[in-house]
Amino acid sequence: MKYNVTPAEKSTVKIEITFTPEEFAAANDKAYVRNRGKFTVNGFRKGKAPKHVLEMYYGKGLFYEDALNDLFNDNYPEILTAEKENFMPVGDPALSVEEISEEKVVLVAVTPVKPDVEIEKYTGMKIEKYEYTVTDADVEKDIEQTRERFAESVEVTGRPAQLGDVANIDFVGKTDGKEFEGGSAKGFDLTLGSGQFIAGFEDQVVGMNIGETKDIGVTFPENYQAEELKGKPAVFTVTLNKLTGKNLPALDDEFAKKLGSDTVDAYKAKVRERLEKNAASRALNDTENSIITEIAKVSKAEIPEAMVEKQEEYSMQRMEYSLMYQGIRLDDYLKYVGQTRDEYKKNFEEEARRAVLHQLIVEKLIKELAIEATQEEIDAKVAEQAASVGKETEEYKKNMDPRQLEYIEGDIKVTKLFEYLQANNEMVVKPEEK
Fold this sequence. Notes:
It contains 14 helices and 13 strands. The chain is of the alpha+beta class. Among the domains are: about 110 residues, Alpha-Beta Plaits (2-Layer Sandwich), CATH 3.30.70.1050; about 100 residues, Roll (Chitinase A, domain 3), CATH 3.10.50. Strands 7, 8, 9, 10 and 11 form a five-stranded antiparallel β-sheet that branches. The chain has a four-stranded antiparallel β-sheet with strand order 1-2-4-3. The chain starts with a strand and ends in a 5-residue tail after the last strand.
């Protein structure tokens, strides 16, 4: 077997693999032995007909496809290993047969590969830096949300519905006087003020009394998922069956102790510390995204579709997990928006291309700047992770997957890269939005 690799268009390489007649004949014999039991010929027991007899009955190329697949599958991985310093495949190859003759057999694999990215500039740029402050109001809001989680549900009678109530409702939605799919339900629990329904719906339930039926008029937004409902006015006939309110626990030392603090003041300090840590993490993430976005504006790469499709599939998986947490199946959601999985996946195409380009830039800069993670840095991270789960470092390391170490090493390199980029660009603090 001999092969030749040449660059091709759209970040692919063309791998031309040439086999001798003897190699092809051996593969053909192997394919015959594996498949002969599938064929019956008069005068022979099933699976016992000689190869030349089967070829006479079914055609000379009877076993060619299997033989060619065997030759490719046996040799392609070896080629990739031999060429790993020259290119990295990022998808399955497109395989074709260029020649089958008495002299040779030639297969051609066009393989998508990781592209090089051209970066015009990555230092000396003016880039927005994000900083977020934690206010007393943020702390109070977080505490109120925690009290909500610990609240006792109580049935409400003798007053109209108000924001914060859980309203149990029946509803029937109509557009142009006709009911539409997915627009009706019975015994639906809706938290008023949650924003779960179309804008204006929940506000009109507020003030209704138990047992009351009311027509609520709303307009579907222009960007609504279901094409046939975009921008259309609708009327929902709503009946309020029951109201459930909440009794919030008192904010006192007893409540604080349930949450691991001795006093209310200690609890508030703990909440503030957590929020400040989250704010710092969010600011760092947004700043890093700002940096890479600016560099991407002066960068270009010919990204193969295989990389985009892989990123789109990753985004779909994240969405599926998110829906699962809400008790919704992806298939049901796709039916509701009237799209197939492939159609909906295209919504992530622009985001996917951007994510792939950003990743290529990060990898290129780490290599170009020769950024490394030392063993001491890796060991320190491992020790930190071990401490976070209450284990001794050596015990923790015994159960670590090698991929965890690779992730830690990669994370250290990325952190060092963004520290370098912040230090070598003009970082301008973006005013915090209220």
